[in-house]
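User: My instructor asked us to take a sequence, write out its structure as tokens, and then describe one feature of it. I'm not sure where to start. Here is the sequence I was given:
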Amino acid sequence: MAHDYPEWWEKNAALREKMGLPEYEPSRFTDGAYVHEVIEEIEEEYDCEVELVSEDPNYPSNWTFRINGTACAETRRHRDENGNNVYQLTASEFRRQVTETIEP
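Assistant: Let's start with the prediction itself. The structure tokens for your sequence are:
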């Protein structure tokens, strides 16, 4: 899948490659969906604010998704072999929990 990355992303990618560092990938769910993309879709669809918060963000850590301040889904976060965040929840499971919170 081709991506159009911003200039700063391309510069950082070139630096990582030059220094032999692993590729960066945005935070994602276990099914590979990017968290920020799913959040943007939900915020637009439901006209709401989604927050991802942790009271104690040590590693590994527990995180809560909030919809307009109301807890919606809880999950654990780990880092993959390249140090990228993976939330232990699929995008479809997250969406289901959002729907149950917004449309009880």
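For the description part of your assignment, you could build on this observation: The CA atoms of residues 33 and 42 lie 13 Å apart. Try explaining in your own words what that tells you about the chain.
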